[in-house]
Amino acid sequence: MTVEVSSVEQTQKEEVVISESDAKLVNEESQNVEENTQNVEDEPKPKLVEKSSSYREESNYLSDLKDGEKKALSELKSKVEEAISTNTLFKSEEKKEKENQTDEKKEKSEETPEEGENPAEESSKEEELENKIEDISIWGVPLLPNKGSEGTDVILLKFLRAREFKVNEAFEMLKKTLVWRKDSKIESILEEDLGEDLANAAYMKGKDRENHPVCYNIFGVFGNEELYQKTFGTEAKREQFLRSRFQFMEKGIEKLDFRPGGVTSILQVYDLKNCPGPSKKEIRSATFKAVGLLQDNYPELVARNVFINVPFWYYAFYSLISPFLTQRSKSKLVVARPAKVTETLLKYIPLEEIPTQYGGFKRESDFEFNSEDGGGVTEICLKPGSTEIIEIPEADGGATLIWDMAVLGWEVSYKEEFIPTDEGSYTIIIHKEKKMDSVEEPVRNSFRNNEPGKVVLTIKNHSKKKKRAFYRYMNQKSCSV
């Protein structure tokens, strides 16, 4: 089975990353997130969609670490092992000194057992406490290095990278995170029922080009005043909102693999369409607090934060939280205005993994194209004023052809027809020619042919701009393309 197209061009892949200076330009137009295209040859061949190489996480293999990084990791492991063995991982230095003084006083009294004490029972309690101490873990990974877990180094490297390999700072961050998790009862948060009101505010769907699970955060749902008040109306409700964010983060972490070479972080997408503006101080306050807690207690667990449908006021909000973000966190921020949503997501997520509402091919309960079938998305370039023809041939009758089609920004004319091989048969119009608006979602259609022929998709670009088009198809009698 072959596919023919008349011409193809490639567009440049350029990252839109928000900088500190850009954030202060509240009144600037969307030129801060405009992206340029690159001229290439006029007649290249069709190509499969290629993944962006703009971002790579650091390796967690020891052999890939620099000498200074290896040394820092070794020092942190020693500190953690000592803190666990002395049961001081959850205690501050001040408390440790006080307890040492108390222990010295008790030593003399412990030399002679008091009446009624059972040495065997005391020994059993000490052994139980020792086992409990050694079982200290985070995200299912034991922190005691001599436990031999592959994930221990990976977790410790996250804290080191969050603090630029400054061992003491990374160690303090780890201790504070463990204390926060204990005080906030994070280990049992997955068992909590936090209600169904926020079920549509966040969901996991698909994977990005590097297999990171993708989390979509839909802030537009809070445009509903009733839900807004239920979520942010009181301090208690705002705390409940924070717990829901932590719970969802923990659900995402369950999908990660904390081994060298494993996927150890999540891609976060924040949809700000219809999000309440800066006048709603409650959501601003809760979001500000969530950003701080997530940054401090979930180091290097987010590969990138992509903000889409960004309104102008976002830049003012960013200028407020920017001073509280680390430089490393800032480097992971990407923003996209409404006209650039699909184009921006496509750099990090394959089209077959992007939900249809964002211009991708991923549909709920898709039984026609599954994850194994989705690798054959083909991209073509629509030159200004050109007409492109895509032919999907089927040599045998009785087959069902299914296809997906999308054009970034649409504003083109589009039609579908079936042309039989037998010249004596009639051409069948599947979809009359229609001008597709810029807000159109991708097209999914199918046709069962009773005789040999081909489905022909015709796209007319009447504009003066080049456009990117994508399609895939499958034959239910054969494999997908």
From TrEMBL:
Cellular component terms per the entry's GO annotation: membrane
Basic and acidic residues bias (residue ranges): 11-27, 42-68, 91-111
Residues annotated as domain CRAL-TRIO: 191-366
UniProt keyword Repressor present: no
Membrane found in the keyword field: yes
Ranges for region Disordered: 1-68, 91-131
Coiled-coil boundaries: none
Example GO molecular function: lipid binding
Places the protein is found: Membrane
Biased composition regions of type Polar residues, renumbered to the chain: 1-10, 28-39
Keywords: Membrane, Transport
Protein name: Patellin-4
